[in-house]
Amino acid sequence: MRGKIEKSRQRFICRAIDDDYRVHWIVDNLPVGVYATNELRESVFTRGFPVGFKVGSGKLTKHYLYNHIRIIIQYHDDSDSLLDADDITTKIVGFRVEPMSIKHSFDGPTYVAGTTLNTCSGNSINQASSDPKNFQSVDKIDSVIFSYDVMWENSDIEWTDRWDVYLNANNPNDKVHWFSIMNALMVVLLLTILIAIILLRTLRKDIAKYNDPASLEEANEESGWKLVHGDVFRPPTTAPLLFSVFIGTGVQLLLMCVTTLSFALLGLLSPANRGSLATAFIFLFVFMGSFAGYYSAVTYKMFRGTEWKINTLATAFAYPGAIMSIFFALNLVLWAQGSSAAVPFGTLFTLLFLWFCVSVPLVFFGSFFGYKREATTFPVRTNQIPRAIPVQPWYMNPIILCMLGGILPFGAVSVELYFIMSALWLHQIYYIFGFISVVMVVLVITCAETAILLCYLQLCSEDYRWWWRSFLSSGSCAFYTMLYAVWYNLTELDMHGFVPFMLYFGYMAAFSLSFFLIAGTIGYFACLWFNTIIYGSIKVD
Hints:
Elements: E1 2-4, H1 7-18, E2 22-23, E3 26-27, E4 30-31, E5 33-37, E6 43-47, E7 49-50, E8 52-55, E9 62-65, E10 68-77, E11 90-100, H2 124-129, E12 143-145, E13 147-154, H3 164-168, H4 174-210, H5 216-221, H6 240-265, H7 276-287, H8 289-302, H9 308-337, H10 345-372, H11 398-405, H12 407-425, H13 433-460, H14 467-475, H15 477-491, H16 498-535
Parallel strand pairs: 10-13
Antiparallel strand pairs: 1-12, 2-7, 3-4, 5-6, 8-9, 10-11
């Protein structure tokens, strides 16, 4: 096949070679790969193959295009002695290529379809590809001839092992993952010790003092968390409906992630099945809509809210609407650019169908049972008149506390987040679901303990407005995740043009929003449990 190369296309190809762009093909669900030599002169397998290569530097740089591709497909014959010869099946177990740069030659003044190439006959391909004088340059050409040949190799690789070469390619050192796990566990251990020493010992003394009639008068004159027992469960005055929507959506996302990881650990979801993880996320999110409606309704009823219709509609449409808006806007950009990554109309229609016809009814179904349930009862009674909140010291500022609360949860997952980002944006395969499951457990514990610790300090300062702060203190780790995305873009990615930046930060904003809701929901439930326990342990007249 002969293609015309215009000046603009020449610059485009040269830039693709400079930026190490790679071509990705698929045969029988196997991604294409090449064997290359690394810095240690070791032969390593990498996914995709480069567009070309360059020689020299500065103004003397010359760009060469890989215009001939040798496709090598490995196959394996089932060797079952019980099978007849006619029943033995042949399966593809490997797919790699050998890219070559060849300036093809032919007889005749012009190239037309069917013209025999002198450089594609017999052993001439290997000779032409090994001659630097015969490389196909893209700096000064007006057309190029593309060609390919196919080779079949018999292999001893079993069908069940055909993905091993891909999973081992670009596989980060397992020691780094263990370092990440140990780092996260040390954070959890530190927080656990702090809570055990500061909270448990202090709370035991406080509860004993508050329950001792002899010291009751003295305790009333002191400051402490018991003094706000009549206001600690007072509903938030700031956006209680929005808070309940956040809680319902956070529960939905958390259950979606936990269920997906459970299926992956059981081997039901594998990177060998393209799109299986994304499909699982979508379907599980849709079917978890009933939990979103239920917990949103329970929380809003606990706040004695009356606009239950608006609460249910917001739970069904707020977060999915935001995500779909971002996705649709980015997809429009891909359509305008003519990208093959654009999602077709049929898939968009399917997503809208799942949203409106499955997720929304399930949210309404869950809300119905949530509102039918009796309102949550608290261990202490709420006073009719709110208690005055004393002037807080500067370090108890809500912004400072919330920003501090997100550091430890983010630090616990930051190392593993690097590998997840590399899988998303650098075409690597992430399959170590055991590590990410442990990190998920560590994240839940860290968010819960951090929120509890900050909530206790706040109550000791006689500030009972803990609802939103419990959510924001742990959810603020999403802010650091977005900052990490900016740093990752500056250090690991080399993007050019407005569209790649728009796609990257659009999807990372959606990811950070989801992370914010998940982490915030964990912090809220931890603080609700903690406050119920400690205020249920004291005697109040």
